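Good day; I would like, with your permission, to put a structural problem before you. A protein sequence and the structure tokens that stand for its backbone fold form the material at issue. The record follows directly beneath this note:
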Amino acid sequence: MTATTAPSAAATAAAAPAIRTQQDVILSAPVRRTLAVLRYATGFIFLWAFLDKTFGLGFSTPSENAWINGGKPSQGFLNSPMVIGPFKDLFNGMASSATDVLFMLGMLGIGLAVMLGIGTRVAAIAGSLIMAMMWLAEWPIGAAGSNPVVDYHVIYAIALILFAFSYAGETWGLGKWWSNLPIVRNNQWLR
């Protein structure tokens, strides 16, 4: 009589099909479409921040403070009265022309990546870091009369992470094409 052994965890994992598409994760087409709409809206928030701060469209940035007119987008925020609390000196000290460039490139890159549905993992990490830093810069938010724990920065970060984990860029986006590029197949973190 021969003894049989249970397959190893590695063998079981190797035999299980890998999650490769959004349809494997989210079976409902209406949910995938709703995520696509949320993805477009969230991406446009980042893209709009870039456009308004670059060209001074007069919404949150007046024309005279536009980046193309010598405005300082991140410095304006980091040195503003909105930056309060225990991290004020840290964020005031960060303000520089380098943070202006990094912030603006971040807004543009995150906005385009999320709207196009490509590089959502990288966009989720970068966007979540920016949102966390802005949240910390304004903390304690409750001092301004809103929720001291969860505000729009937290919601945007959660939405970005949801897009990455749910392969949301595949519905009404370029996510499937992007994930089939050889460089992305070989470096899944770029997905």
